[in-house]
Structure formats: structure tokens, C-alpha cells
Amino acid sequence: MVEMKKAVVLSSGGLDSTTVMAIAKSEGFEIYSISFRYGQRHFYELEAAQKVAAEMGAKKHLVFDIDLTKIGGSALTADIEVPKGRDESQMSNIPITYVPARNTIFLSCALAWAEVLDARDIFLGVNAIDYSGYPDCRPEFIDAFERMANLATKAGLEGDRPIKIHTPLIHLTKAQIVQKGLSLGVDYGMTHSCYDPSEKGEACGQCDSCILRKKGFHEAGVEDPTSYIN
Question: What is the pLDDT of residues 24-63, one digit of tens each?
Fold first, then answer.
């Protein structure tokens, strides 16, 4: 029996990361899901990530605790209002929901776990088209991190093949992401994207993440299963 290749998949429980996990699974990888409890106001995403990992048959789902509220500087980790009702032209600027160096921190943790697992593949749901202007979602950042990963680890120096950061969604629109996920049987009803949900976990419908999610389903021509406040 041929041993399956292992992949560490960063999971927020949202639309993009869930689609990426489905892609990794379809490519024959054994899934090791990693999520982060970092003091984010939208903690419902962790419940969604757990559901996604179970549904995708992940070998293990790891929740990593990093308290980024000690740093703050973001509407997701500090007492700062989440912007609402922005149009897409405003999303070209880096918003206050940007968490300083978040993907660098998360990828570093995923890289460390991948090295322990003897995995050479890390999947991340970043997107450089329909996104909120975050600098750590760009191809230049991913390429730089991959080079660093192969320089800074024992696995990168002595492994049988280089470490690869997979970003299959990076050049897709939200509509294309939705269509890709549906073609792989993804149930988007179990995902959560909102930055500022209600106490019951209902999506606000007005933050950047909700706006982009609704846009994706609308342009894909399929119903958005999200429960919105209004």
C-alpha cells in the first residue's frame, strides 16, 4: 500500500480555506488541519473549522493558541470597530481588520508542525483578486515565505524534496472559488466568514468578508447558505 502524502492545511473555517482543504483532499493528500485561537472577535470560525476538519476526514485538527490581543492593532484583536458597508474600490487599501503579520505567524506555526509530521506540503487559502487588500495574501509574500521555509528548516535542507506552499485560489475570483468548491462537493453551510458576528453567530452581512462572500455566491449564480442578521 502506497503511503499518502501529508499536507498541513491552514483552516479558518471560512469559504476559502475550506475550498483549499477540499482541493488538497482531491489531490490525494492526508489532511492535517491547523486553526488558530488568537483572540479574534469572530471565534465562531473555530467551531466551523472543527466541523470542516471532521467533514473532510482530517487525520488531525490542531487548534493553536496565540494571544495576538497582547499586540492589538487590528479591529479583529482590539477594541476597534469593524468597518461596515465599504465598496470594492475602498478594499484596495489595507483595512483596520488587517492583523499585523498574521499569515507570517500562522505559516511559521504550520511550517513547524509540517516538519514534525515529515510533511512537505502546506496549503493556504489566500487570494489576491477578491480580497480585503492584505499584504500577506500576495504571491510575492508566498514566494518569499517558501524560500525562507526551505532555508530555515532541517526538512528544507536535508529533506528528500523541498517544502511547497500551495495557494490554489490565489488568482481566482470569489465566484470561481465557490464554483470550484461546489464541484468538489463542499457544503458551504458549515463555513463561517464574518468578522463581526452576532452573539448567536449570525453573519453581519456588512463587513468586508461578508460583502465579498455574498458577491462570490451571487456571481456564481448559487444560493448563499449563510445566516445573516438581516
Answer: 999 999 999 999 999 998 889 999 999 999 999 999 999 9
* CATH code of the domain containing 143: 3.40.50.620
- Asked if residue 226 belongs to a domain, the reply is no
Residue 209 belongs to some domain of the structure? yes
In this structure, how many other beta carbons lie within 10 angstroms of the beta carbon of residue 206? 20
Cell of 85: 458597508
Residue 1: inside a domain: no
Rounded Cα gap, residues 141 and 158, in angstroms: 24
Q: Is residue 81 part of a domain?
A: yes
Query: Cα–chain-centroid distance for residue 80?
Result: 22
The stretches of 14-63 forming alpha helices (DSSP H) are 15-26, 44-55
The confidence score (pLDDT) of residue 133 equals 78
Phi, psi (5° rounding) for residue 217? -65, -40
Q: What distance in Å separates the CA atoms of residue 188 and residue 194, rounded to the nearest whole number?
A: 13
**What total of structural domains would you count in the chain?**
1
State yes or no: pLDDT of 91 exceeds 90: no
Are the C-beta atoms of residues 22 and 11 closer than 8 Å to each other? no
Give residue-wise pLDDT tens across range 140-149: 999 999 999 9
